[in-house]
Amino acid sequence: MFVPRDLETARAVAFLVTVALTPAVALAQTDPLPSWNDTQPKAAIVEFVEKVSKEGSADFVPEPERIAVFDNDGTLWTEHPMYVQLAFALDRVKAEAANHPEWATTQPFQAVLEGDMKTLADAGEKGLVELIMATHAGMTTDEFQKIVSDWIATARDPRFKRPYTELVYQPMLELLAYLRANGFKTFIVSGGGVELMRPWVEQIYGIPPEQVVGSSINTQFEMRDGIPTLFRLPQVNFIDDKAGKPVGINEHIGRRPIAAFGNSDGDLEMLQWTTLADGEQFGLIVHHTDAEREYAYDRQTEFGRLDKALDAAAVNQWTVVDMKTDWKVIFPSDLK
Amino acid sequence: MFVPRDLETARAVAFLVTVALTPAVALAQTDPLPSWNDTQPKAAIVEFVEKVSKEGSADFVPEPERIAVFDNDGTLWTEHPMYVQLAFALDRVKAEAANHPEWATTQPFQAVLEGDMKTLADAGEKGLVELIMATHAGMTTDEFQKIVSDWIATARDPRFKRPYTELVYQPMLELLAYLRANGFKTFIVSGGGVELMRPWVEQIYGIPPEQVVGSSINTQFEMRDGIPTLFRLPQVNFIDDKAGKPVGINEHIGRRPIAAFGNSDGDLEMLQWTTLADGEQFGLIVHHTDAEREYAYDRQTEFGRLDKALDAAAVNQWTVVDMKTDWKVIFPSDLK
């Protein structure tokens, strides 16, 4: 589906029209979250949204302050068996290998080219940063945007054999639309590279590039033959993860969200920043419990680790979504 | 006036309704820019807006891509006799002097307390940074927001004896509204501190905090007695000026604007980045030529210097506003 930038306007207008033309009772019967089972999470979401968006409600929040932030990997789309960003980096190393003969004998590039995941894993974060810098920097922002757009259009998930953009969670797409229809402004706040998300998030999530907060590398403005360019440098600018998420939210959005949605310890501080404040807030954690339809993981794996955040959810009454029991379908393609 | 965050939606809806109910001829007769004289700048603005927003036009630009960026100091409000940010810093030094007895004998603080502008000027950029750090850091983001809100509500411009928020340019307020009514999303891209603008821009300009790009210092997330806080550190994070403006635009907005409005050499690269690209773009420079109603300056003064940008305007066909001849009124209070 293509979702234009003025989706919020369109949805808002459509919603207002619906309200104006539909008897309240009929409206009450329409289900804004059809892919959610009628369990606690769905009820908690609807109760919160009605509470803050109803004029005259004691917990009413003015529309400008209805800011909702969403983690991306593992919250809006699949992050297993590896972050899509890493899949992109590995594909780029293979695609660029011919231009870098030295990679055949240099780690971690050699491991990537030989498919030696063990050695790659042993390279750790240092090796990962090397891969990211070698594949994400050294070109203009326009060039990188084209590389990402071309890749996301052709890359396929190894298990589901489908484009990564089809491995988004249908219940979360409905949640994004439901929030926007109720005057919320929806943002992505991800540890992933912001430039890797922006080329496709608008079409898939209906979230415009300017409402995406993410990790970034430094860029430098240069006039080249009279043409202004932004050149991507192999230097980390900002890591939008863990304690960096509230920092990124404050720097980019400039006001505190009232709803936050995540799935791992990387989202803990974002959930704390959002919910531990005056007024009404909502925090939700997507718990991956469905090995059959997607994946099951948290405490048992280093991947998308969910030790602290799950414990904090109990303490802070954040809603925890059990994917297996709370979601009727996982992906849009599951819709009958 | 209070302008809600959903101003864009409201304006868009109002505009659509107007279009639907008003004969084209009548609509054509309404003037969206009443405070602009019928000179070249106004004609150029209207021609551009109609060109890019008219369905079927060869130069039509989809609404999501109608991004307009505005410098703040000297473009949307008065920057003479000193940047409002500096006025804020000087006032804060005086207000905090009792808590810093050492300032009485330490420069540049002593100069501020003694009103010795000569010594203050001699302290240069190094002294300025010291003043900024001493007055903008060392508290939480919530505390700083309150300090700014209290200050902007009571501070007065020395010449006009009015709140700085009344020294915004009426023609530019009309331009902001006109662009939004035609599907543009308006952003501020200023060299000023982003946290100094966000508390009041929404009410004055109808621009929400999340659409303000500016200079910033580092913040650090901390849980204090179970309460999440962002603490402002005395470290520069980003200077959103000159070649930094395209960098800030790309990092924050993530797509290239099609219209840019500035008034000094600090806006040169932003204007280049916006206008020297494929498709239709618009660049405009506010030239301060009205010593009687506001100020007259550019090449003759180090302040708001306009050497390169004015020359580039001629080369790149950017529109240059001569405040004296092109604007009927300067401030909202001038409206009869």
Automatic annotation (TrEMBL), chains A, B:
The keyword NAD does not apply. InterPro entries: HAD-like_SerB (IPR050582), HAD-like_sf (IPR036412), HAD_sf (IPR023214). Residues 1-28 form the signal peptide. Keywords: Hydrolase, Magnesium, Metal-binding, Signal. GO terms for molecular function: hydrolase activity; metal ion binding. The keyword Mitochondrion does not apply. This is Phosphoserine phosphatase. It comes from Neomesorhizobium albiziae.
